[in-house]
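Box 3.1 A note on notation
Throughout this textbook, protein chains are presented in two layers. The first layer is the amino acid sequence; the second is a token string describing backbone geometry. Keep the layers aligned when reading.
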Amino acid sequence: MDTSTLCVHGCAKKFDTTGAVAVPIFASATFAHPGVGQSTGFDYSRSLNPTTVHLEDTVAALEGGCSAVAFSSGMAAVSALMELFSPGDHVIASDDLYGGTVRLFTFISEKNGVKVSYAAPQDIEKEVRPSTKAVFIETPSNPMMRVTDIAAIAAVAKKNNLLLIVDNTFLTPYLQKPFSLGADIVLHSGTKYLGGHNDTLAGMLVVKDPKLDEKIRFIAKTTGGCLSPFDSFLLIRGIKTLAVRMERQQETALKIVDWLLKQNAVKKVYYPGLKEHPDYEISRRQASGFGAMISFTVQDGQTAVRVLESVKIIKYAESLGGVESLITYPMLQTHADLPESERNARGINDCLLRLSVGLEAADDLIADLEQAFR
């Protein structure tokens, strides 16, 4: 089945007998047992809920995994993921990641005895130790739009018996399929493109090994960061339009990139769809599109602030992937908890802006940026 059709209809598993076209919201915390030692398959919504199961099976099918587990936020998913590891274990992470993930690794995982080191994609194998258990990559990366060769890192992981975890939030399964390239776990902030409407928080962990699914479900049930049936419904609804949103948003992003490249106040544009992007060929090889996230640097910090405070259609706000275009100041928002020296080393300075392109008309967004630059 084509991905766009699967987005609309979801998984084949149904729990409703009325013929409802929309997946019902099973707003029940608990479920009655038919008898002692008997179950309908549902006992308590922290473990399983019919609406959430439909969402999980849909996302698993989209990614090509065996199963998925839904969480109350992307960071809840990352938190549960890190519970797979024990004190003394070591995880290698790519050196350009969402700041919230770095914050969790630094202040929570390290406190719990899990060591995390960071490396550029080409240097990941050099970081492997006897205690290394996994590699965590985000591609394209946030906010510098670097692209990691998933298949190459998968070969390193397999050679060293490591799990490969891929954050696929920016491209979604519509444009990129990490399992087909060798990933073991795929992570999503469902808040972003899967939900697509800036109206709910969610996270997803997708796996291709049933044994990993058992471990993650036990962690999810025990720690309790489950997604509610109401929010599960919102994600199911959002996914129905994922394909058309990604196509339209990417089309508009390409027009905005072309415009930005012609602006004197713009010093550099970071977008994997540019032929001069150092990872352009990797992007073409492993993904079917380049997405709708753009980062760019302007001539100075004053210009950055003026743009942020002057946009009208585009909203100055955190997050991304929704129908409304959002512009973000990574230095003060997504990566504010990183030490200044680390931010500067990664290019996250007072001149860097990140734009999530929404569904507005391209001409309107360009006109909004144009007046903001003035």
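The chain is about 35% helix and 15% strand. The longest strand covers residues 132-138.
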